[in-house]
Amino acid sequence: MKDIETLDSKVVYQNKWLTLREDKILRASGKEGIYGVVEKPDFAIIIPIDKDHVYLVEQYRYTIGKRQIEFPQGAWEDNPNASPLTLAAGELREETGLRAGKMEYVGFQYLAYGFCNQGYHIFLASELSQGKQELDSEEEDLKVLKMPIEEFKNKIIAGEIQDASSCNAFGLATLKGFI
């Protein structure tokens, strides 16, 4: 027997961005329970680096009611089967207008696997050239920032940058020697 067996599953809510599922489960101990699961497509997060600077985006995040600074990132609901590299290059171009001459794969992490199946592919983009942004309607307030890496680190330490996936992506890229 698996650690947890799914006895029944029903979709509670669904839109183009996510599906919320409630599963009736059976634990190895024999006790039943329920599990709420958010299904979302994997996304890409991109660390655009130019010498000792990184490019970031700032946008209003409705769920917390304030603007946040983070690395460009996103998923394509209209093309969930796009390769992670294609997605990363596309999101970088859409959000910042930047094109990368070089994209290096850093790794894969899960966002919050306690309740969500979504993960993200981390890329380091370099050899950058500037083009035109291709923002969609949800990104109309997005601003692009170029920031020294040391300032970015200090903003993480000070709690000014709170996007977990951006902090994690930067940390993994640093630990692996990309930065």
TrEMBL record:
GO biological process terms held by the UniProt record: nucleoside phosphate metabolic process; ribose phosphate metabolic process
InterPro entries, A to Z: NUDIX_hydrolase-like_dom_sf, NUDIX_hydrolase_dom
Superkingdom assignment: Bacteria
A single Gene Ontology CC term: cytosol
Molecular function via GO: hydrolase activity
Chemical reaction(s) catalysed: GDP-alpha-D-mannose + H2O = alpha-D-mannose 1-phosphate + GMP + 2 H(+)
Cofactor(s) required, per the database record: Mg(2+)
Domain annotation Nudix hydrolase: ranges: 39-169
Keywords for this protein: Hydrolase
PROSITE patterns: NUDIX
Family: Belongs to the Nudix hydrolase family. NudK subfamily.
Record's protein name: GDP-mannose pyrophosphatase
Source species of the chain: Alteromonas genovensis
